[in-house]
Amino acid sequence: MPDRVARGIWPHPPLDFDELARHVARLLRSEGCFPAPFAPHETGHPVREGGIIERRGAFNYVYRAQRHAATDPGRLADTSERRFFTAVASAKHYLRWDLHLPGDLDGWKVR
What we know:
Layout: H1 2-7, H2 17-31, E1 33-34, E2 50-57, E3 60-69, E4 72-84, H3 87-97, E5 103-105, E6 108-110
Antiparallel strand pairs: 1-2, 2-3, 3-4, 5-6
Helix pairs in contact: 2-3
């Protein structure tokens, strides 16, 4: 931290939530998914908790999430899907529900 202060890069200005959502949307449009491709749960392996967004067409974005069973981390408890018409709307949903933004993002403030 002292090095950041000495270089004048701390404290840094907060990130704008809408700008961050537009950036994620650009990545989603170019890559087809964010933050990684969806991998269905395989029995006996740990459940990857959280959500991903898939682009399935120009106006078809799907947020998919899964979580483990509270009593057995290797067992899938829930999956859900939610459809969006725009990349930005799906990105905002991901940022709110998976990263709990606006708020703190690994030391960066997001407003």
